[in-house]
Give the backbone structure.
Amino acid sequence: MLLSFVPVFAAMAQRQVERWRKADRTVPTDAAAAMTRTTFEIIVEAMLGGSANLDADRYSRALTDNFGTIPWHIIYVMFSIPEWMPYPHRRRAMRSRDFLHRDIRRIVAARHFRSSKPDLLNLMRAAHDPETGRTMSDDEIVANLLTFITAGHETTAVALTWALWLLAKDQVTQQRVFDEVKSVAADQPIDAASVEGLAFCRQVIQEAMRLFPPAPGIARISKAAVKIGNMQFSASTRIHIPVFALHRNAGLWDNPDAFDPDRFAPELVKARRRFAFLPFGGGPRVCIGGGFAMLEAAAILATIIRAFRLDPVAGHKPKPVARVTLRPAGGMPLLITER
């Protein structure tokens, strides 16, 4: 099922390549904005069959507005502050939220038929409880689509943005990616057969997610009393897992601040503690989109590196900012040269 989406990944990545070919490449390009647009186009194609008339730029702005206020939501929940209490940019975030809900509802209402295309909207329309026969309401479909659109493109875009910057700084590793792509796929579009041969591409993405995890922290509430190390926690305790710190823990990783995709070679992965690497979380609430995201990121990375050489902008050092995801402040300017 997941491999059936690879042609979509490759086609949308190639669309981004064509946009860059037409752009002024004498000035830096914002790789963060490009990856956000590309992954958004993929999620729209995969979720809605590409038939929806969506304004990608407006959606991106609306999602950014919502992400910017999520830390306030977390604070309000932690301290039981009433939701009606104001916080910075609350009205703008609410307008953006209303726009997202209204537009997705428009799309759901317009899809009054069930086509044979296996996009997510059709799958949810067709889904039913095997015991009761109950189907999903439009409200449930809208809520689920918004969750998938939000989580399904932002995290992958962030992972790819950091991966491109790390490769721009490391030309030797970038050349290894290029050589692998040419060896596996030559000049043909990445397809279901070739994507599985992009082992080093996946290692680069994994290492980028280790150094700059798209979700830099995870919060859980204990269901029962639990002991972690020498600390005892009672039931219903909110526990925060600092993924960013975990991924750079010198007790778990050799030379943890260095960019080294070889640390994700299969034999080293097998020897490592299972929960030392948590880009998608872990346990029963592990991200269900992890497999989709890895295939998507590998196809996009391979398509871009085969087409362009990336170089960093002299003197620019990106600053990671945690706003639910770990975005680079102000975007990610890179210099691109067609191969």
Observations:
- The longest helix spans residues 138-169.
- The chain has one domain: 2-338.
- Strands lie at 29-30, 218-221, 226-228, 231-233, 238-241, 308-312, 320-323, 325-328, 333-338.
